[in-house]
Amino acid sequence: MPYRAWFSCVAGCPGQHPLSQVIYRCPACAGLLEVVHDEDALGKRSPAAWMQLFDQRFLRTSWPYGSGVWGKKEWVQPMLSADNVVSLFEGGSNLFWAERYGEQLGVPDLWIKQCGTSHTGSFKDLGMTVLVSTVKQMRADGAGIRAVACASTGDTSAALAAYGAAAGIPVIVLLPANKVTAAQLVQPIANGALVVSLDTDFDGCMRVVQRLTDTEKGDSGIYLANSMNSLRVEGQKTIAVEIVQQFDWEVPDWVLVPGGNLGNVSAIAKGFLEMQRLGMISTPPRLVCCQAQAANPLFLAYERARAAGRELNLNDFEPVSAQPTLASAIQIGDPVSLPKAVKAIVETNGIVLQASEAQLANASARADRTGLFSCPHTGVALACLEQLIEAGTIGRDDRVVVVSTAHGLKFTEFKAGYHEQRLGFDSRYANQPVSMTGDPDQAIGELHRLLDQRG
After folding, report:
1. Among 217, 221, 266, which residue's Cα sits nearest to residue 32?
2. Cα 187–293–314 angle (5° rounding)?
3. What is the C-alpha separation between 184 and 69, in angstroms, rounded?
4. What is the pLDDT of residues 22-65, one digit of tens each?
5. Which end of the chain has less neighbouring CB within 10 Å, N or C?
6. What is the CA radius of gyration of the chain?
């Protein structure tokens, strides 16, 4: 059965634009675009049949359907040739039952969607496989795309560089100087990308890459890979489908998502809402967008709307100058995906919260003590979770999912600084190595004493 998808204006301007067209904004209003699917065609297959198909493909070996993204190809990029799919086996990440952590918080049905276990260590792989695959298809069809470029706070550049290298497509990444970790910086370098360090923040890098890829100022042949390119959203929305699939097609009550440029919360909402329209679920979970207090423009907008006693809208938003935060990947004051995120919060009856530096670091460390190893951005979501539980908004019987966006090994400086008490606040769960002599009797006696102290 043939399925179709196209770009359309988020604001509702008329017109359909092919996914093979180099276009990032609506020609009529300059607003964001989104990928729209022919849901009449998709709806001709029953919800039960879709579930059966997705389950048959999940993590199997038939190319390219074993990928967590490409197993849902008809919902993602239906017109792409399988020969041009660039997949590094993204998706299919563990939905971890955080039993001990949940019991400590009083919410035993707590789960962590560990998107950081993907190929490059972050959820960005889910969107980048779709974008780079589409570019490979466009180049095969004769499009003059010389390279693909992004601005990044680290994880986007790693994903783009890896998928570009796998596809044989040149990659340019623009990074804010001294604002990404060593682990994040070495990834695009190792994969052969042209890495540029700019003396600015992420928002400044974003201005440069938008000018570099601006189709109105001439065809540079450089294709934009940031999340304002809604092809990436199509891969990231499969997080929502996969969560429901991993719960045997049941919907959780809450999903908490760290928010910076706001592409991921928008994508996850899109996945749930498409499932609802196609009859696979009856209602979406409530989404919580979790921001660092140092970079919190959507939270401030949400609070303005709450103070006025009405739902959030675009007029509530004002950009901020994002301040340094341990959650460096979401240090963004003027998020590109704002209109989509506002829509996501409204349509899922969602909430926006913020977390201070001490809150995010202590929440991350507390969760680590129960077997996790979370990035600081996941720490933001965990801190917001603790706030919602303390306020009674999330109850003991609720099923809760926290989306973990990146692997903690990308942020070892953050972990070390926390446990060495170098972050400027009390590290409540700090744990430091203990020095001992090499004498067996002395070491054994000291070890027993320390174990007794810990209980």
Report:
1. 266
2. 95
3. 23
4. 999 999 999 999 999 999 999 999 999 999 999 999 999 999 99
5. C
6. 22
- d(C-alpha 126, C-alpha 233), whole Å: 9
CB within 8 Å of 168: residues ≥ 6 apart: none
The encoded tokens of residue 286 equal 């409530």
Domains along the sequence of the chain with CATH = 95-120+233-419 (3.40.50.1100)
Distance CA 227, CA 225 (A): 7
Q: Are 58 and 50 in contact (CB under 8 A)?
A: no
Hey, how many other C-beta atoms are within 10 angstroms of the C-beta on 332?
Answer: 27
Report pLDDT digits (tens) over 319-374.
999 999 999 989 999 998 999 999 999 999 999 999 999 999 999 999 999 999 99
Residue 320 burial by Cβ neighbours in a 10 Å radius (0-12, 13-18, 19+): middle
The whole-angstrom separation of Cα 298 and Cα 385 is: 17
CA 165-267-140 angle, to 5 degrees, is 35
Pick the closest to residue 155 from 83, 90, 104 (CA basis).
90
* Spatial CB neighbours of 216, under 8 Å, sequence gap ≥ 6: none
The maximal CA–CA distance of the chain, rounded, in angstroms, is 80
Q: How far apart are CA 389 and CA 366, in angstroms?
A: 15
Q: How many residues does the chain have?
A: 455
